[in-house]
Amino acid sequence: xxxILLFFLSIFSAVSLNAQQTFTVTNAGFAFNPSTVTVSQGDxxxxxxxxxxxVLQVSQATWTANGSTALSGGFSFPSGIGDYxxxxxxxYYYVCSNHVSSFGMKGxxxxxxxxxxxxxxxxxxxxxYPNPAVDWLILQTEGNLMDSEVTIFDITGKTVMLFxxxxxxxDGMRIDIGSLNTGIYFVRVKSDSGIVSGKFLKSKI
Length: 205
Description:
Low-confidence stretches: 1-18, 116-124
CATH topology of the largest domain: Immunoglobulin-like
Strand content: 35-45%
């Protein structure tokens, strides 16, 4: 057990630590701005457009043909506003379903693989511990968690836990993660003051 623990500690001491980021996409006329966003796994792409520019994820073939057939299981923001959490590395294609055929309004998200564990301790607004965690995770923020929405995503971007206006004590929010599989997870705390996010490792020991 000690050898395994030392192994995980060596991983966390060897990798680089980077703050998780949020990228915003708006529109300049009938074009996305920026049209290409390059992010890392766990980053958030925030779409902030008007309702006249609904965002729809499509296949590469549909994107190339300036089509608007939705990709099965892809993201869709009919109001033009929404958040996409980057998961599996690759290039993702999206369009404005109202204006892609007439104005070619489309964009891409390039997701790069993680090269290091991003430690949430680098963000002054929020803290996760212990990290790695086995059964329980403590989440602390400078704001009031009871006015927030806390979401946990797996490495593919799938939501595995969601807490709206969660209860918390003076020590922060205590989250039971015992049912999660071993691996890397992302935590996002969304409130009226903005979004903060980070990452933790679910361990067996």
